[in-house]
């Protein structure tokens, strides 16, 4: 395995370096070939590295950044004022070839705009899309996109998302002829928004894709499709709804073994039950699959949840490692040429 | 308590009379003041009434209908060809005053179109909205709308939904100055679709409403708001996503006590755990809160899930009883006059 260098926007996210630095150390520990460029305020980052093992510390380099893009900044303004920010400098490492991918938990709109500006979309892609891989009930996985990069997606964009999703399912999940579905409010052809119906017509006429039709929200985790395509607004709300419900269940399960007035054996039993259930539902825990991949660019960019904890941010770094190993942008580019309609 | 008569589209839904007839009998059993008009094929309905208690049978009347609107029919075509269908005749019972409300598990688009045509929207309402009351984590409840009556909702419609939702929270949930939020993909003012931002501006400027801002999908069940407003496409996908995840969890919990090779005491323990958890999570079971209310009409119409089982359809009938008792259309109408901007 060869050397792998990733750039981390150390200042992004709700907790900034307090999460990104320990997560970086954890990622370095678990992969001896990994090198990280931590972009941000050198003093803060250095103070958080105090206890790091020196062998691990050697594979980590700090790159100074003067500013941070606020998570509630308007993307257009943030991009204009982005020079010197940790997010921009991290992306520039990818552009210049110093790093092979960038990971940020910062402002989604700014990340997507800056990534598009600096790394450029692939030929045939109008706008990049945020994709994630969700675990499903059958213990397989589903590629879902767009998760919020584009609040308004027309039919052409939905078709591009479908192509990129299918490539991801083939390359990352090793699924042959992955099933592709559009998220809609009914399974009948006449249902839903016109953009979805138009995209369906194009997908049905594309023998290169294994298009299976519409799926509804309740099929998100059932494993009925390998790729689920929707616009960014719906995808974002859907993903967050799912996460909210899963987290609520997990927290209710956790409280299962608690309570003051219980006998010791009931408390012990409670804890045993809790452990068993955690094992059973653990693969659905949102922290396990943090990290949405910004697809359609000439480079790899991973967006972590703003609220990611250390474990979740480590998972995002590992997603970046995997995306680089699998040469995701190169493979999408190659497939796009074959599938997308020629513009000339 | 006075006599209450409801019209049931006995043929609608995935299971038709096999669910609607037993559910009707169950509803009649639990409320001695209830009378039901079952609209559909007399032979099928009669055969399913064979074992019914005669005292209950007396409060039930069959109204013959020649046809059924298919659940996958295009609403516009279905409405044109609706004369003589069970759904239309059931709605006509409300229009003529024979019934005080109508319940159907049939084609949502057709139900909404026919209801609008026959019962007419209230003054100030462009299009009716589907509303439901969801249980949340704090064991309170949240009013959510629109759930799919309008796939594309402009800002004026979102404002109307907010007003109707607030009235419902006051009247049905007895909440004083209910909090009203818009579902969006971020909490910052600049986020989301322009229709949502425009609606937010109007709501912020309405002292009659207790508008609290944007909420995201993960807050659907947290109880941070009493009323959650979104367009019909997003609402439908969100609700179904939530239901899908909840059902998955409940089914995983159910399988908890199963397994062939287990010792008898483990199996017993498993069943005990299952019972405890079912109690803990039971209030989130989608079957418990079936029945979306079509708001904004001069009459009460309840849409049941197409896939509702007997228990769920009974809940929908009980929702109709409650809506009639609370005089929902009258109260919405009164409040609309005060809150909505005058058109002239």
Automatic annotation (TrEMBL), chains A, B:
A GO biological process held by the record: phospholipid biosynthetic process
Residue ranges of the TM segments: none
A single GO molecular function term of this UniProt record: phosphate:acyl-[acyl carrier protein] acyltransferase activity
Source superkingdom: Bacteria
Pathway: Lipid metabolism; phospholipid metabolism
Enzyme Commission number(s) from the entry: 2.3.1.274
One Pfam match: FA_synthesis
GO cellular component, one term: cytoplasm
Compartments, as annotated in UniProt: Cytoplasm
Reactions catalysed according to its record: a fatty acyl-[ACP] + phosphate = an acyl phosphate + holo-[ACP]
Signal peptide location: none
Keywords, in A-Z order: Acyltransferase, Cytoplasm, Lipid biosynthesis, Lipid metabolism, Phospholipid biosynthesis, Phospholipid metabolism, Transferase
Membership in a protein family: Belongs to the PlsX family.
Subunit structure: Homodimer. Probably interacts with PlsY.
UniProt function note: Catalyzes the reversible formation of acyl-phosphate (acyl-PO(4)) from acyl-[acyl-carrier-protein] (acyl-ACP). This enzyme utilizes acyl-ACP as fatty acyl donor, but not acyl-CoA.
Cited PANTHER family: FATTY ACID/PHOSPHOLIPID SYNTHESIS PROTEIN PLSX, PHOSPHATE ACYLTRANSFERASE
HAMAP family on file: PlsX (MF_00019)
Protein name as it appears in the record: Phosphate acyltransferase
Species in which this protein is naturally found: Erwinia sorbitola
Lineage: Bacteria, Pseudomonadati, Pseudomonadota, Gammaproteobacteria, Enterobacterales
